[in-house]
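Quick one before lunch.
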Amino acid sequence: MIGIFDSGIGGLTVVRAVMDALPGYDIVYFGDTARTPYGNKSEKTVIEYALQDTEFLLKQEAKVIVVACNTVSSIATEALRQRFDVPVYEVVSPAVDEALKVSPGFIIGVIGTRATVESRVYEKKIKEKNPNARVFAAACPLLVPLVEEGWLKKPETRMIVKKYLHPLKTRRIDTLILGCTHYPLLKGIIAHKIGKRVKVIDSSTAVADRVRTLLKATPNLDQSLSKNGNSEFFVSDLTPQFLKTAQSVLRQRIHLQQVNL
Ligand code: DGL
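Model of the D-glutamic acid complex:
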């Protein structure tokens, strides 16, 4: 199975993208809905949670781990790779590569949670590959609760997105990375508010493409993954609203199982 986890249900945007990129591959998902959000927690806590989430997925027979959370990817990837002996894919590097591929003038904006923006991981990775690139980041802490609440098309959400994007617009960015797995659900509004000129990079499709490419290059690993079109979804807390949002992200009915880590 491909194991995918997030702090909550935003990571289902990555599940959707992996299902589209690798149809039929079995997926086991864990969303830590009882402890979400991670984006305003300390590094130590995010690492501790990420290790527990991964241990749970490995117990469910996951052979590959996809970190469907920008906050965990930014802070805990090294800790996960040191602790576990399975491939760990994170969402930051594929989004950075994609941005550098399409950005015409390398003036790149990044939006994410406070933890992701404060880690400056996007800036570091972009500059490692292109020292001349200019990177401007903005934390958008209100967007995750708006998505979890299902306020995807409300005028208030549009206003808040506009306000968050204003400083990036004045910098005349040409590319914008959605550095949070919840934001693809607001992609339409974000693309509209930032303007047609700006290329918008969705980390969920970028990581799904990366996983597909790497599985092609490692047939042994690919063969070890089951492909019966079965997916299992676990959360650490279950409410009717979580189920509703999860099903609308995946555009299908699912069974969400509550587990305690
Ligand atoms: N999934 C998280 C991310 O991509 C956002 C939610 C949270 O703060 O936990 O950064």
